[in-house]
Amino acid sequence: MKKLLMATAATALMCAGAASAETIKIGVILGFTGPLESITPAMGAGAELAMKEVNDSGMLLDGSTVESIRGDSTCVDAAAATAAATRLVTSDKINAIMGADCSGVTGAILANVAVPNGIVMVSPSATSPGLSTAEDNGLFFRTAPSDARQGVVMTDILTERGVKTVALTYTNNDYGKGLADAFQAAFESAGGTVTISAAHEDGKADYSAEVGALASAGGDLLVVAGYVDQGGSGIIRSALDSGAFDKFYVPDGMVGEKLNEKFGAEMNGSFGALPGTDSPGAGTFGALATAAGFDGTSAFAPESYDAAALIMLAMQAAKSSKSADFAGKVMDVANAPGEKIFPGELAKGLELIAAGTDIDYVGASAVELIGPGESAGNYREIEFKDGKYETVKFR
User: Fold this and answer.
1) Which CATH class is domain 16-146+279-375?
2) Is the peptide bond before 111 cis (omega within 30 degrees of 0)?
C-alpha cells in the first residue's frame, strides 16, 4: 500500500510538472525582404540557434519549449512592420520579440505594438540614438550599441588614418539621419571637416545627381551611411563609375558579403566598421554557427543570438514567460555580478539561475547593457584587400 501511495504521488508530481510546461513563442521580426535582406538570414539563424540550444537542454521553466515565429519588418515600411508585429501578438500570442532590425520600424513596433501590449523587445541591430530615450515602459533593450557610440568609433578610425575631410551621404530614415548626425558631431569636434552631408533615397536606379553633388563638395573619401542591398551600394557604384571617389568608409548597414560580391577589388583601400568583438564568446559562436550552416561573422548574427538568449534567461530568472514578469530581469542576467555564460552554455545558465546563482551573460558579443538597456558597444574594424574585406582591429 505504501509503494502504491508513493507511486501515485510520483505520478502526480510528474503530471504537475508536465502541466506547468508550455510552448513559449518568440517573434523574430527582421527585414527578410528589403535593404538588409542579405544580412537578415544569418540574424534569424543566430536567434533560432539560441532557441534550439535551450530546447535541447529541456531546462527552461519546467521543460517548456520555445518556438520561433518569424515576421517581416521590411526594414523600411513602418506600416507593414507594425502589421506584422500586431499579427504575431494578437494571432500567434507571442511572449516576446527578438527584433526588430532597422531603427525606424523598431521604433514603430515599440510605440504601436510592444508598449500597448506590454511585450518585451530585444533588438540586435536598431542603432538610432533616438531609441535611447524612447518611451518604452522598461520593455525595450538592444544588444547593439547606439550610433552615438558608432559616430565616435568612426571618427577614431578616420583620424587615425589621417583623414581630415569627408563627404557624407546617408539613407533618408531614422538610422541614416541618426548616424550621420552623430558622426558629424564627433568628427567635427575632433577637428575634421564634413564638406557635405546629404540624404539619399533608397530604391533609385540612378544616383548620378547625388554623386555629382558629393563630388563637387569633395573630400578625402566618401562616407556612405546606407544599406548594402539598396541605395548605399547604388551610391558607391555611381561614384566608382564616374570617378568621383575611389575610397569609401562603410558603417554597419553597408557591411555584408554582398559588398564583396558587388564590388570586389574596386573597394580595395576602403574601410569601415561594424559591431563585433574578439572575446572568447565570439569564436565559440562562430564555430557553433558554422556547424549549424550559417556565417557567424555576418553582421548582427552574434547580437541576434544574444538577444534571444537574454529573453530566455530572463524568463528563467523571473520563473515566468510573461513579459510583465521578466522585463525587469533582462539587465540582471546580462550584467555582473555572476558566473560568466558564453555561447553553447545556455543550459548551464538556465541551471545556475534555477539553483539561485547569479549569472553574467557575456554571450557572442561581450554583452554589457548600460543606461537604457543598450549595449556599451564593441566594434570590428575592417579593410578591403584583394577584393574582399577582412578584420584588422577590434575596438
Assistant:
1) alpha beta
2) no
Q: Which CATH architecture has domain 148-275+378-394?
A: 3-Layer(aba) Sandwich (3.40)
Contact 238, 263 (CB under 8 A): no
Instruction: Check residues 372 and 225 and name the one with the higher pLDDT.
Output: 225
- Same topology, domains 16-146+279-375 and 148-275+378-394? Answer is yes
**pLDDT tens track for 327-386:** 999 999 999 999 999 999 999 999 999 999 999 999 999 999 998 899 998 999 999 999
Distance CA 90, CA 216 (A): 52
- Which residues are CB-neighbours of 19 under 8 A, at least 6 positions away? none
pLDDT band at 313 (very low <50, low <70, confident <90, very high): very high
Question: Does the predicted TM-score (pTM) go above 0.85?
Answer: yes
Taking the C-alpha atoms of residue 310 and residue 62, their distance in angstroms, rounded to an integer, is 18
Check residue 264 and give left, alpha or beta (phi > 0: left; psi -120 to 50: alpha): left
Which pLDDT tens digit goes with each residue over 54-104? 999 999 999 999 999 999 999 999 999 999 999 999 999 999 999 999 999
CB distance 132 to 148 below 8 Å: yes
> What is the chain's alpha carbon radius of gyration, rounded to the nearest angstrom?
22
Give the Cβ contact number of residue 163 at 10 Å.
Answer: 20
In angstroms, rounded to a whole number, what is the distance separating the alpha carbons of residues 321 and 147?
31
- Domain locations along the chain: 16-146+279-375, 148-275+378-394
Q: Buried (b) or exposed (e) across 205-218, using 16+ Cβ within 10 A?
A: eebeebbeebbebe
Rounded-to-integer distance, Cα 305 and Cα 326, Å: 18
